[in-house]
Amino acid sequence: MTSIVTISGGLSQPSSTRLLADRLTTAVRGELGEQAAGEVVELRDYAHDITDNLLTGFANQRLRQVLELVDRADGLVLASPVFTASYSGLFKSFVDVLDPESVRSKPVLLAATGGTERHSLVLEHALRPLLSYLRAQTVPTAVYAASSDWGNDTELGQRITRAAGELAAAVRARPERAQSDPFTDPVPFEQLFRNTTAH
């Protein structure tokens, strides 16, 4: 089963960011077929948990489940509203508590929502550099949805379809991740004994 995890950074309910996240998730699952599972996480439900993690350095059980979802995912969809020409503080705080290794080389589709089209550059000047720093594999097409896109969303639908196809292709091309079980290939006792007596 292929796992696609979508992180929605919207703060309101209902949220245009969640609406875009749902459409992207559906499109990616459609590209991947019946063997794909999709899960959407709304960060607003974990705002206190994320803050506690930032203050204490430890994730509680609720947040740990989300972090493990991200780690196990075959592909990610990350969507944030635009606040002051950048991603939201809640979205950035979540990224700050992620283990960087959990997104390293992982296919990621970037998305954002905002009031006007002029905020669309947030995808390239804020979100993509952030994920590049974490060494994620961002797909070429990022999806921005302004308020005007929801009325006549033919072009938005085309961007969603193109980006979903790119993420699905990147997920399919990704090599199987080896399961790191330390007990599958134990070191022989003789070798361990030899190492301790050599000093």
How is this structure best described in words?
By secondary structure, this protein is an alpha/beta fold. The protein has one domain (2-197): Flavodoxin domain (Rossmann fold, 3-Layer(aba) Sandwich), CATH 3.40.50. The protein is 45% helix and 20% strand. It has seven helices and seven strands. Strands 1, 2, 3, 4, 5, 6 and 7 form a seven-stranded mixed beta sheet that branches. α1 (16-32) packs across α6 and α2 crosses α4. The protein is globular. The model is unreliable at 178-184 (pLDDT under 50). InterPro entries: CE1759_FMN_reduct (IPR023932), Flavoprotein-like_sf (IPR029039), FMN_Rdtase-like_dom (IPR005025), NAD(P)H-dep_FMN_reductase (IPR051814). GO terms for molecular function: oxidoreductase activity. It holds the Pfam family FMN_red. Residues 3-150 form the NADPH-dependent FMN reductase-like domain. It comes from Actinopolyspora saharensis.
Provide a concise account of the structure shown.
This protein is α/β, with parallel strands linked by helices. It has helices at residues 16-32, 47-56, 61-72, 89-97, 122-133, 154-173, 189-197, and strands spanning 2-8, 36-42, 75-83, 86-87, 107-114, 137-138, 143-146.
